Every structure is written in structure tokens, then in C-alpha cells.
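Case 307 in the screening queue. Each case pairs one protein sequence with one candidate compound; here the compound is 2'-monophosphoadenosine-5'-diphosphate. For every case the pipeline is the same: read the inputs, emit a complex structure as C-alpha cells, and attach any notable structural observations.

Predict complex for case 307.
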Amino acid sequence: MLEAFAQPLNAATRYCAVFGHPIRHSASPALQNAGLAALGLDWRYVAFEVHPDNLRDAIRGARAMKFIGLNLTVPHKLLAVDMVEVLDESARTWGAVNTIRFEARAKDGVWRPLGYFAESVPGEIRAHGFNTDATGLGRALREDLGMELAGAKVVLLGAGGAGRVAALKLAAENVSQLFLINRTPAKAEALLEEIKHRFPGVFASVGHPGHAVDLVLNATSVGLKPEDNSPLDERQFPLRQARAVYDMIYRPAETALLRAAKAAGCRVANGVGMLLYQGTEALEIWTGRTAPVEVMRKALLNNIYGT
Ligand code: ATR
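Case 307 output:
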């Protein structure tokens, strides 16, 4: 439906893309093409399965073909840090790149996003790496759960790639207490050390709290499979002690954790908001314009849930 508003492909059409491995189930093309069409841009957003061994070549290829920008998803976000010429503060802070903006050096010597050049693009092009995952999470917690992170007490499940970015973002937002829980305790301990070093003002520890908290946040992959149980051991921490629960998983829409949290009377939200907001921010980075959030939300929900 929304695609109907896009101009037909033509020789002047410009491209953005997402690279991942696997990529087939990515909702980003639906999300971004709805946004591009609503902005009236003759741009398209496509998805490519790129093996990590070929990531550097794929980024080079996109640059050579004057793509506007890229998104990177699993397993490319860490690898790409060494494959761009410039790292934005966001990518440096979180140590991962999920958005690349290609930029060309204009006649006045200033680097400008490729999307800003209407006609011919100057020859010298660089890749500028950003990260929009952390801000996406922060915005989703604020808007979907009404969370005020500063001063909040939070239980974080997971210390993998997503868990690390979440922990650092929570610490950067000045949560007062952060409880890290992970199947492999050594990874939670390593994350704890990083937080203590970078955010000494945050009380952080490994293990379940003995008191009520404002938020339980799931950043593990437990819940992705329909048969998965909740990643939280309720003998260690009962959900009635949590005010709100956020699950980064968005497919299925309701995980066992969210079901249990609802039953315990918690406010709940799944990861669709985080996905939406990391995408709206990427679109803004490429276009320099305000993203049409509601159009993009609708396209995303339609793509994921068929609603
Ligand atoms: P992502 O980039 O999505 O974070 P990841 O880095 O592989 O992916 O991390 C997956 C997270 O889910 C980790 O915290 C992982 O725990 P381990 O560090 O012990 O591997 C967690 N996880 C995955 N499967 C799990 C399971 N069956 N039970 C508990 N935790 C699990």
C-alpha cells in the first residue's frame, strides 16, 4: 500500500541498504521504504545477505555505487567499526556501527552527506559510522513504558552484544542501580568491570536484587523461539517486584517473559519500539529531515504482525 506512493524506479533512483547474515526476515526495508516514500524521495532501501568475510567489499561496493547509506545488523556491527573512515561519537561510545552515512567532499572542502547532492556527486567519498541502537532503546523505554531512566533501578538480562549496549546506555542515562544477570556469569562480570570503569557513579553488580526495581530489561535471545521459557528465574526475582518489563524481542509479539510480567501487573512493551526508533534516527541521519514516525510505525507493524 505505502509503496504505491513511491516513484517508479528510474536511472536517478538512489539507494540505501541493510547488510546482514541472515537478512531475509529483516523488517527494515518495509520500515525505511515507507519513510522514504512519505518524504517524497526518489530513493529505495534494499536488503542484502552479506557474509562477514565480504563485509569490507560490500561496504566498498556501496560506496562506489554512491549509495546514500547503510544499516548493518547481526553479525556486522562490531566488525564495521574498523571499516569506516570516521566514527561518530555514538559509534565510539557504544563500540558498534549500525548505520553508515556516505559523505562526499564538496568543492568548498566540507564533507556533506551524499543525499544532499541533487545532481553529480563529487568523487571523494567516505563512510561515516553511527550507532542508533542505544538512542532507539532509550526512546522506546521513555515512550512505550513512560520510564524515567535517571535514578531508576534496573535488572538487565543478557550480556551479549545487545546486552552490552543496553547496559552502557542505562549507565550513561544515570540509572541508580543496575543488576546484571547472564547465563555465562563471566560475561556479566566483564561488563560490570567496563561499567565501573566508565560510569563510576552507577551502582552496578552481578546477580538478582533483593528489593523492588523499576525495570526488568531482556536483552538475551531467550524468547525468540516459540518454545522458549522466560529468561528470568522468578525464584530468584519475582516479577511482582518489577514496575515495568521491556523485552527487546519483537517477534513473537508476546514472549513468555512479557506474558508473566503482564500477569504480575507490570507495565510491558516489546522491542518493536526500539526497532522503530533506531530506524527513524538512521533515516534522519541520511536525509537531514524529520522522520515520518507514524507512517514508519504503521509499516513496521504491518510487516511484522500483519496488522
Ligand atoms: P545479541 O547480539 O543478540 O546480544 P549474543 O551476543 O549472542 O547476541 O548474546 C545473546 C545473549 O542471550 C547472551 O547474553 C546469551 O547468554 P551467554 O552470554 O551465556 O551466551 C543469552 N542467551 C542465549 N541463549 C540463552 C539461553 N538458552 N539461556 C540463557 N541465556 C541465553
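Case 307 observations:
- The pocket of 2'-monophosphoadenosine-5'-diphosphate is lined by residues 74, 158-163, 182-184, 187, 220-222, 231 (CB under 6 Å).
- The mean pLDDT is 95.
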